[in-house]
Amino acid sequence: MKKTTATLRAFALFVACASFLCAFAAPSGALGDECTPYNWYFLKNDRHEKPGLDQGMRFINDYDCVYLNAETNEKVVYLTFDAGYENGNVAKILDALKKHNATGAFFILENLVRRATDLVKRMGDEGHLVCNHTAKHPDMAAITGEALFDKQLTSLEKVYTEFTGRELARFYRPPKGRFSKQNLKYAQNLGYTTVLWSFAYADWDNRAQPDPEKSLQKILLHAHPGMILLLHPTSETNAAIMDRLLTGFEEAGYRFGSLEEFRK
């Protein structure tokens, strides 16, 4: 009985300490509210209209966080790629972008910098933004301490500079779209704009790649003004359709924008 009581007291103390630490890190709001984890989503449509922002996600507007260019009705698409490794397809994506003189943003991991340095340098050489996707791709929403959060971003910065002699662009994308209000604030404190997306599709699993023709049609069907498109450049499907996808955007009157437009 004494052992059970002691265990319960220890658990209660752990919960209390966790709540206190989260509340201490949060400048305002209900206890723990700043640490609540969110999975990014948006209200998509196939009418070429800007996807809506659910009421429960509108707080992102209080931080330096974007998911589309809400200020424009221009046909502009921001091409963004989450790249953690090279399997032959990333280079093919770069080839297609070069052919169309289209620039985008690559959110990278430490692994890619170390194992494919020349490829990462090529991204910058060809005018693409090289951005922060964290060092190790953890669940960032589970991180409530600012020092631990910062380490994931600054560690990648250091490795990137060490291997390339360059500095990362100040754009950050949380792995798997997992974040908290606190995370957004921490990224903002580091000078980053957090970049989510207004369209993505299931392209990440190399063991279950989607049909190329259906994927091409799906992406173009959901094109909209100010679109931030998320693609994984390791996808065999994306490598196969990229040339035609870019042609499709061009024929529909879209230009390829730069995330730097969000920092003016």
Short description:
The chain is α/β, with parallel strands linked by helices. It folds into two domains: 1-35; 39-263, TIM Barrel (Alpha-Beta Barrel).
What would your notes on this structure say?
The structure is a single chain. The chain is of the alpha/beta class. It folds into two domains: 1-35; 39-263, Alpha-Beta Barrel (TIM Barrel). The chain has helices spanning 2-25, 89-99, 110-115, 117-125, 146-164, 181-189, 212-221, 236-251; strands at residues 38-39, 65-66, 76-83, 105-108, 129-132, 171-172, 178-179, 193-195, 227-231, 255-256. Strands 3, 4, 5, 9 and 10 form a five-stranded parallel beta sheet that branches. Helix 2 runs parallel beside helix 8 and helix 7 (212-221) packs across helix 8. The radius of gyration is 20 Å and the shape is globular. It starts with a helix and ends in an 8-residue tail after the last strand. Residues 1-31 have low confidence and may be disordered.
CATH superfamily of the largest domain, by name, is Glycoside hydrolase/deacetylase
**CATH topology of the largest domain, which one?**
TIM Barrel
CATH class of the largest domain: Alpha Beta
Class of secondary structure makeup: alpha/beta
Overall pLDDT metric:
90
Q: What is the CATH architecture descriptor of the largest domain?
A: Alpha-Beta Barrel
Task: Please compute the radius of gyration using only Cα atoms.
Answer: 20 Å
- The structural domain count equals 2
The count of strands amounts to 10
